[in-house]
Give the backbone structure.
Amino acid sequence: MKVQEENRAITKRDLVNKLQKVEKALGAQAQRADAAERECDRLLSEVICLQRGEAAAV
């Protein structure tokens, strides 16, 4: 019985570690997505200014 409990504990720990890695990767991916969205907004603003003949305020 003790071996099965140890195996469950190891499996649970492995799963928790994998989950933490996935959460970390998703957090990094979300940060990159936010940065990309900010860059898109900046570029769109610049395009709009250029279309209006204004100097880009960026």
Summary: Residues 1-58 form one domain. The CA atoms of residues 20 and 29 lie 14 Å apart. The chain has a mean pLDDT of 90.
